[in-house]
Structures are given as C-alpha cells and as structure tokens.
Amino acid sequence: MIKIGIIGGAGYTAGELLRLLLWHPEAEIVFVQSSSHKGQAITKVHKDLLGECSLNFSEADFAAVDVVFLCSGHGQSKSFFEQNNLPENLKVIDLSMDFRLESDHHDFVYGLPEMNKAAISGAKYIANPGCFATAIELALLPLAKEQALKGEVHVTAITGSTGAGQAATDTSHFSWKNNNVSLYKAFDHQHLAEIKESLCNLQNSFNKAVNFIPVRGNFSRGILASVYTTCEWSLIEAMVHYQNYYLEHPFVVISDENTDVKQAVNTNKCILHLEKHGDKLLIVSIIDNLLKGASGQAVQNMNIMFGLAEDAGLRLKPVAF
Q1: What class of enzyme is it (predicted)?
Q2: Which residues pair with 41 in a beta bridge?
Q3: N or C: which end of the chain has fewer CB within 10 A?
Q4: Phi/psi at 267 (nearest 5 deg)?
Q5: Residue range 249-296, pLDDT digits in tens
Q6: Would you say residue 164 has pLDDT above 50?
Q7: Is 318 left (phi over 0), alpha (psi -120 to 50) or beta?
Q8: Of these residues, 131, 200, 231, 270, which one is catalytic?
C-alpha cells in the first residue's frame, strides 16, 4: 500500500483527493494536515464524506508516508520546502503553480502524463499542471508533436466556480455568480507560461502567440475550451494524428460528435472534438477542472510514479443530469 499525506487538506482539491484515495485499491491515507482545522474531523469540512471517512485533521508525519500531496495555495509550496526537512525518499506531488516551469533551481517534473509519462515514472517531485493548461495542452499536443503549429492559437475557455478555490471573493459570491458570465485575465492568464513551454518542448520552432480568453462560468465544475488555429491537415488527417497520439493514454477520448461539459464532470477524462472550418482546425476540449484539471491528474501521476496501472482508482462515472 502507498502511504499518503495531504498538506492543505481543507480546500476543494484536497476534498477531491480524499474522495479518490479513500477508495483507491493501493492507497492508505496516513495524515491530512490543515493549519485552520487542526484536530477537527475531516467530515466537518468535507461534509459529503460523512460515513466514508473517520480521520481527523492532524500534524504531518513525513517519515510515515511515501508521498505527500501539496494542496495549499499558490506560493505556499516554495515555503513548504524551505520550512521542512523532508526524508530523502519522500515523493511530492504539488498542485500549486510554484514549480510548473522548468528551472535550474528545482528538479520538479511537469506532471502531464500525455506528454511526460516516462519522466513522471522516474520522478521524485511532480508539478501538477493547471486546469486550463491541461485542457488547452491536450487540445494542441498532437499538432505540436507533428510540427504542425504554424500560426497563432486562439482559445476561449470557460470554467466552473470551483476553479477559483474555496476562499470567498467578490466574484465567487452566489448573488454575483448566479445567472452571470464574465471575462478575466484576458491574454494574461497565469497558465499561459506553462502552455507555451509545453508546446515548445514538442515543437521547438513554435514562436506564435497563444491568445487566451478565460471566462468565469455560472456553474460549479468543468472546463470547456474552444481552441482553433490554421492547419494544413484535412479533418480525416487530423483525426488520425489525434487518435495515434492518444492511443496509449487511457483518459483522452476523441469524439466525432460535439461535446459538452457534463460528459466529463466527475471523471478524469478529457474529451476532444475536432472540426475543420476552411483552413482552421477547431478543437473542443472538456475536462473536470477538479479531477483531470487537478486531483484526478495528481492521482494519475501517483499511479505512474509507483508503477501502478495508470487508471487505478480513477474509473469514475460522469454526471448525466
């Protein structure tokens, strides 16, 4: 059994991790740490786990676990490493953005299995990708692999309110969010850097803009990304390239019908739909932002790191209604 610790256990991503790991066939949760809820029952915060979990929030014991998931806010993971002396053999999967970009100052591997599976399998530290980045990268990786990104990339993507985290803000308040849609961080979203880096890792020559318009949706979870760029392939050629690229990746599905968010919600899937319009290839990409965009992908990375089946504990059913 893989012995697991969770840091920052009160947020949405930690809640999803708990739901997955409690039923994972090879996982044992040893501790769940939360500085604001120490000693309380986990079900006081994650109330949907009532009857499923008897653990309390407790102090971290790094010597007792094989892997730690970092679920604290952005910027806190760097502080975590500065403040803690970790055992040499401890693996870490970080769900923040602190270590996603390549650097000489850390040895984190970018945890997108559909691009870096071999590196993930031998890694000690994993930087879990961002939710928008996951949806957009999976829409574009086959193009980059074939050196077929020739022009600018245009993306409009809408995300559910859980993408902003659990802390209350002016734009997450129900009376503002309900029956409302808004843009934010147009052309300047923090996930752009990792998207560009991933594309360039496959296609060194790619030097065009990725024009990204993020949208706040008035639903709880899920991402729909509409991605298009110029492409010389026919639709049939595009389908062949995409199917070949994802042939051995269990969570990416190519659909010949237009897709919608509910097909992916509550699953670790990414569903891609391709269309050709003149010289433009349109890729519609949908994921659950809390699963394939965060905690589900983190467990997928854990499975790869420990030599398990990639889909262990992750065969979840979508929400139909």
Answers
A1: oxidoreductase
A2: 56
A3: C
A4: -130, 170
A5: 999 999 999 999 999 999 999 999 999 999 999 999 999 999 999 999
A6: no
A7: beta
A8: 131
Alpha carbon distance 230, 280 (integer Å)? 4
Q: How many CA atoms are closer than 13 Å to the CA of 237, on its beta-carbon side?
A: 9
CB 223 within 8 A of CB 158: yes
* Rounded distance between C-alpha atoms, residue 55 and residue 30, angstroms: 9
Alpha-carbon torsion, ordered 285, 291, 297, 300, to 10 deg:
-120
What gap in Å lies between CA 252 and CA 133, rounded to an integer?
Answer: 15
**Structural domains for the chain:** 2-129+292-305 (3.40.50.720), 131-289 (3.30.360.10)
Q: What pLDDT, on the 0 to 100 scale, is given for residue 196?
A: 97
71 catalytic residue (yes or no): no
Report pTM. Answer: 0.94
3-state secondary structure of 148: coil
The pLDDT of residue 220 is above 90? no
Separation CA 55–CA 243 (nearest Å): 43
Residue 244's SS3 state is: helix
What size, in residues, is the chain? 321
Q: Which residues pair with residue 173 across a beta bridge?
A: none
Alpha helices in the chain (DSSP H): 12-21, 76-83, 113-121, 131-145, 174-177, 192-202, 235-245, 296-305
CB neighbour list of residue 73: distance below 8 Å, 6 or more residues apart = 8, 96, 165
Res. 178: pLDDT tops 90:
no
What are the structure tokens assigned to 240, written together? 């062949």
